[in-house]
Write a structure and sequence with these properties.
six-stranded mixed sheet; 12 helices; 19 strands; FAD-dep_Monooxygenase_BioMet
């Protein structure tokens, strides 16, 4: 394979995969995406927080406006006790002079924007390609899929999520994802009668679980629940639970909390989706030969941080910049790791800290939490203390600093 004409095999078509493919194309590197699912579904009825730092990267691709149009701006997050006592307010996004606020968006809508742009740019997407093996040579990598087909490229980017196959192929001893002790459940109603919570996400620290909700100006209502469960569920166990059963469980969890929560759960008109929270704090090996990890495959962030998608997007632009500015793969991958490791791991730690506030169920723990959170918000969740997260910018046109490339 011609060393100067590089080709990337991107495994995984979530958030990191398409963003990486788009930036690689801009860098003059051919990319093809391989997805295990049989077809595009613009999957997911759940929603996510796309933070201002992630939106800034999408602006480099000309996608920020389209993504913002399909979501709702959420510059404020207000917290309450289960009985309706105000606990504090947290700013959600960069300073006004730095960038746009974070947004709330259905995962399926974000995925649709990315898929449409990838297709418009002529980047190939291969569905039904479950990776089973990788073989790396001097100047190429060959991926083998479960259907018996093979593909050859200069390098492989593992964008295959928290349970990454590529992570184990790069390092069989890689630390496994850590179950955080929380299960997340989410619901959605396209037309609800609840008053809009303009520009605000509301969080309720209930007596048994944590509840978040937002109602857009058009009447779309989103909610999610984080509830503690000590025992890690088996693979696929949570997926087997039907919406009616989730609804019954959630109504029981919040039976002693503000009635609005139960009303919203009952008003849900979409499939209720549940999944366990995992994180990965650190990986000793980010790359090997022609293989490199990106996004959740590398450093899964608890959803409590509201940074999972944005960290994956940041990874994608930085990796593409390093490959653009350095022909040698090992040098480019090493530069990518040097630029991202400290920030990625710091955000994972932040997510763990936030998750820990949601696991209190003992009445004494709940009481202590509710009296301490107002002070915690003032000291540790003010705009200045969170600026390092939201105001982080990666500019595509700036060259990678020479010191990060080992020169």
């Amino acid at each position: 394979m011609n060393r100067s004409a590089r080709k990337a095999l991107i495994i995984g078509f979530g958030v990191a995969g398409p963003v990486l493919a788009l930036f690689l194309q801009r860098a003059g590197i051919e990319a093809e995406i391989y997805e295990a699912r049989a077809a595009s579904t613009d999957y997911g009825g759940s929603f996510l927080n796309l933070a201002s730092n992630g939106l800034h990267v999408l602006k480099e691709l000309g996608l920020e406006h389209e993504v913002v149009q399909r979501g709702s701006p959420i510059p404020r997050m207000v917290s309450w006790s289960g009985k309706g006592k105000p606990l504090g307010e947290v700013h959600n996004g960069a300073r006004i002079e730095v960038g746009a606020p974070s947004i709330n968006i259905l995962r399926s809508r974000l995925h649709q924007v990315l898929r449409e742009e990838v297709e418009r740019k002529g980047i190939k997407i291969h569905y039904g390609k479950k990776l089973v093996d990788l073989k790396s040579g001097a100047q190429s990598v060959v991926a083998t899929f479960a259907d018996g087909t093979r593909s050859e490229g200069t390098f492989v980017a593992g964008c295959d999520g928290v349970h990454s196959r590529i992570r184990r192929l790069i390092n069989p001893d890689a630390p496994a994802p850590r179950y955080t002790g929380l299960i997340s459940i989410g619901g959605f109603a396209q037309h609800s009668s609840f008053p809009p919570t303009k520009n605000t996400m509301h969080f309720v620290f209930g007596s048994r679980a944590f509840f978040g909700y937002h109602v857009s100006t058009s009447g779309e209502m989103y909610w999610f629940v984080n509830y503690p469960r000590k025992a890690e569920p088996g693979r696929g166990e949570v997926d087997m639970i039907e919406s009616d059963e989730w609804q019954t469980r959630m109504l029981d969890l919040f039976r002693d909390d503000m009635p609005l929560i139960s009303d919203m759960i009952r008003a849900t008109d979409s499939k209720i989706i549940g999944y366990p929270f995992y994180d990965i704090h650190t990986q000793p090996i980010w790359y090997r030969e022609g293989m490199v990890l990106v996004g959740d495959a590398l450093h899964a962030v608890s959803a409590s941080a509201g940074q999972g998608a944005s960290m994956a997007i940041e990874d994608a632009i930085v990796l593409a910049k390093c490959l653009r500015d350095q022909q040698d793969l090992t040098t480019a991958f090493a530069s990518y790791e040097r630029q991202r490791r400290a920030r990625d791991e710091r955000v994972v730690r932040y997510g763990r800290q936030v998750s820990n506030t949601k696991v209190a169920t003992n009445p004494v723990q709940v009481w202590l939490r509710d009296i301490s959170l107002p002070l915690v918000f003032k000291l540790f969740a003010n705009p200045a203390s969170l600026d390092w997260i939201y105001s982080h910018h990666v500019a595509w046109n700036e060259p990678v600093a020479s010191e990060t490339m080992g020169t």
